[in-house]
Amino acid sequence: MNYLSLAFFVFFIVFFVIYYIVKPPYRYIVIFAGSYVFYGYANPSMLFVLMGVTVISYIGGFVLNKKKSRWIYAVFFILEILFLATFKYYAFIVDNVNFLLDKIFSIEPIVTNWNIVLPIGLSFMVFQACNYLSDVYRNKMSAEKNIIRYAAYVAFFPTVLSGPIQKARNLIPQIANPKRFESEQAKKGVILFAWGAFEKIVISNNLSELYYSILSDYNNRSSAEVAIGVILFSIYIYADFSSYSDMARGVAKILGIEVGKNFNNPYLSQSTSEFWNRWHISLNEWFIENIYIPLGGNRKGIIRKYINVMIVFIISGFWHGAAWHFVVWGIINGVFVVIGDIIKPIKSQIYKDIKIDEKAEYIVYIRRIIVFCLITLSWVFFASGIQDSIEICKKIVLFDNLSIFDKNLLNIAGSTTQTFFVLIMLLIFCAIQLKRQNEGKVYEVYSKQPFLLQCLPIAILICVCIFGAWSTDTYVNSQFLYFQF
Amino acid sequence: MKRFIKYIVTIIVIAVLIMISIFVVITTYPKGVFHDSYQSVIVDKYRRLQKIDDPKIIIVAGSSAAFGINQDMMEDETGYKVVNLGLQAGFGNLFPSELSKENINEGDIVLLAYEYDWVNDFHSMAQDLIMSGIDENIDMYKHIPIDHWKDFVGYLLKYAEKKKNYEGSDKNGIYKRSSFDQNTTQMIAHREYTLENPEILPMMRDQKLDLSNVSISDETKTYLRKYKKYVEDRGARVYFVSPPVLKKAVICDYKEFENLKNQEEEQIGIMYITDALDYLYDKEYMADTIYHCNNEGEYIRTKQLVRDLKKIL
Asked: Inter-chain contact B19–A456, Cβ cutoff 8 Å?
């Protein structure tokens, strides 16, 4: 079920009413039932996958509660990952095995590709189930005995499709002991949801069409156009993913549940490692807790640390997609982080030697621009196949300076008016995202306004979203990018 | 909880008021921008339908009826008033069908004369044509089915831009308001066979009619069955009749017309009172598309239709 649909609107009204009518100790049943309706709405057969993920990790938690064995933890962890691998990577593995058989042994394809359909949100629910196993294994919580309550955690509908990936120790207690309804929290939830809808419909969907029209035709575009296309992708992917996270947070807040921020203005980062602490925070924390630290983290020397970092980024690349260009994207970002770490003391020394304050505003801006450029270049490999990505990067690196004087740049969005409209929307988006650095203060100012003035901007946002959604085939391309992960 | 519900309800009310205001402002200001356009004649046809309570024949079709019905002749020969809602197939078939429901009374006869494309795409509605046709006549928007509202809301801002940039209809051609009688909405413009002229768009000139293996969608059948019930509940009758078609544009076996007729009668329950083959005309009776009659063709077609109508009158 898509957040931006009439079906969800109706579903949530009914859910909200039932949730707050039911006594708090039994609300987890409502979450369970509602989440299963939400997840199974488009394709009920996918509920079997959800149940499978739930039952395996539930049993795993039960067993781990009785015996904290590294091998038991590993078995159940791997079982969960196998679930993911089967659905997500089967076709990829088959294609590559057949490719190798053909290239090395000249053998016809012998492995059948069964065209398995990837259940939406599978990566997120599997990782959420793994978080539970990890929390039980590491004694951060006891196993949840109530299978319905546990199932409600795995299937928690605000986050099941695209995160943020929840930690069991954070979410299960909130499900088990729901708070009383708080009007201010619910209002914050509504504002977050409305803003998320705006991000998706006005920013993300418009940028999606625009960047695609440029990058799919990069051969016939100038360097400046391709560079703009790549920058637009950078903002698009942020807006798209951030929008879902905001809507998820908003919905959860209305229910009195905190699911955590997933983005913290990542493009303000001054280093690539900082970027990965601000981008998809829940996934980053998952990799740190479940891959990086178990591999030894930074406790086994500097070389091992860098190897562990690269392993995490390669796995992250794979997680994002069953295709080699995602792996390349992961490797590039891993290399950036490693190099960043290596040169950090060298940079500090240079600043000292030339007597420049590292924290000076202009230095901060320069670092942010450099990080943005590096991350944006890496996104090219996320958006396109390897060969196309190389060609796009070549076009940017071997930049044709004259292309920035091309008058057609003003019509890059179709017309000059549309280009300026996109620019204005982007500026509004960036300005508001910056203000959100201090959400508490922003809300404080908002809540001091007269009641009607509080309602008016949200109503305007909704109107803009409706006009935006219905003026394109948005109900078709409302598929969030990260649903495919 | 009460405060929160008050907050949500207020937001929704304000949002609805904003959208209604935007809709009213865009559609009503400035007035009459598209008044000289071809599609604005739909307003006159609709007002004529509203005014006539005497037993009448209501023709629901696209432009084949605008070009192919002589209202005066039909009225004289049948004794019924004629309301010809046929104007523009580009509206879609759903729109004139819904408009016709405005004033159907006991004794009326509704003739569904859709161009044959209807079997492939009955439910689409061209919001640009419809909105520029009805413009500030807000009462006509009630005939837009609710499941199409989002298309019209989504088009609103583009419509405002279209209004701002409109430079008037084609002064030389047929496709303007002045091609119709202001009182009766009868097409009065002179038409000749121009389909093979170079200025005609290739997609019009090369248009063919192929009814091979045609099948009416379940959604369309359901709609037309409900439409039949709507008409009959008001004491009126509804029939299918054939549109005029350029004979040489037909590339399928003629028995496909019979297949379609059988589907319509058996699966929808609306009787066909004409023989489609009688309405296949040579080019000397046609105009600028395969469905448009010239003046002589209009006379022939109307005569045949009256003859077929008299069987059920």
From this structure: no
Number of neighbours of residue A351 by Cβ within 10 angstroms: 15
Q: Is residue A50 part of a domain?
A: yes
Q: Hey, are the CB atoms on A451 and B158 less than 8 Å from each other? A: no
Out of A178, A210, A229, pick the residue that ends a domain.
A178
A204 and A343, same domain (yes or no): yes
Task: Enter the ipTM.
Answer: 0.84
**Nearest alpha carbon to residue A482 among A174, A288, A263:** A263
**What is the least distance, in Å, from the CA of B114 to any CA of chain A?**
28
Q: Which residues on B lie below 8 Å from A20 (Cβ)? A: 1
Tell me the pLDDT tens digit for each residue of B50-99.
999 999 999 999 999 999 999 999 999 999 999 999 999 889 899 999 99
A140 and A207 belong to one structural domain: no
Q: Distance between CA A255 and CA A158 in Å, rounded?
A: 10
Q: Are residue A265 and residue A307 in the same domain, yes or no? A: yes
Among A134, A156, A178, the domain-final residue is: A178
Please, which pLDDT band fits residue A476 given cuts at 50, 70 and 90? very low
Please indicate, yes or no, whether residues A159 and A192 belong to a single structural domain of this protein.
Answer: no
The DSSP 8-state label assigned to residue B275 in this structure reads -
Test A462 with B153 for CB contact under 8 angstroms: no
A122 assigned to some structural domain? yes
Domain count, chain A: 2
Whole-number pLDDT of residue A439: 83
Q: What is the pTM of this model?
A: 0.84
Nearest residue in chain A measured CA to CA from B13: A459
User: Residue ranges of chain B with pLDDT lower than 50?
Assistant: none
Distance of CA A124 to the CA centre of its chain: 10
B128 to chain A: which residues are within 8 Å by CB? none
Hey, are the CB atoms on A470 and B8 less than 8 Å from each other?
no
Residue A1 lies in a domain: no
Per-residue confidence (pLDDT) for residue A110, from 0 to 100: 63
How far is residue B97's CA from residue B123's CA, in Å, rounded to a whole number? 10
Whether B1 and A455 lie within 8 Å, measured CB to CB: no
What's the CATH superfamily of B31-166+175-309? SGNH hydrolase (3.40.50.1110)
- What's phi and psi for A103, nearest 5 deg? -75, -40
Q: Do B7 and A455 touch (CB under 8 A)?
A: yes
Question: DSSP string of B141-177?
Answer: GGGS-GGGHHHHHHHHHHHHHHHHH-----SSSS-BG
Which of B2, B6, B8, B131 is the best substitution to test chain A (most A C-beta atoms within 10 A)?
Answer: B8
pLDDT at A383 over 80: yes
In this structure, the answer to whether residues A104 and A217 fall within a common structural domain is no
> Could you tell me how many CB contacts below 8 A there are between chain A and chain B?
54
Same domain, A322 and A455: yes
Closest approach of A263 to chain B, Cα-based (Å): 27
Same-domain status, A163 and A276 = no
C-alpha A428/C-alpha A431 separation (Å) is: 5
Question: Cβ(A274)–Cβ(A341) under 8 Å?
Answer: no
Residue A89: domain span? 6-178
**Contact call for B10 and A20, based on CB within 8 A:** no
User: A467–B15: do the CB atoms touch at under 8 Å?
Assistant: no
- SS3 of residue B286 by DSSP: strand
Is A138 found in the same domain as A233? no
Nearest Cα of chain B lies from the Cα of A181 at a distance, in angstroms, of 7
- Domain limits of chain B? 31-166+175-309
**pLDDT (tens digit per residue) in A212-247:** 999 999 988 989 999 999 999 999 999 999 999 999
Give chain B positions within 8 Å (CB) of A467: 153-154, 156-157
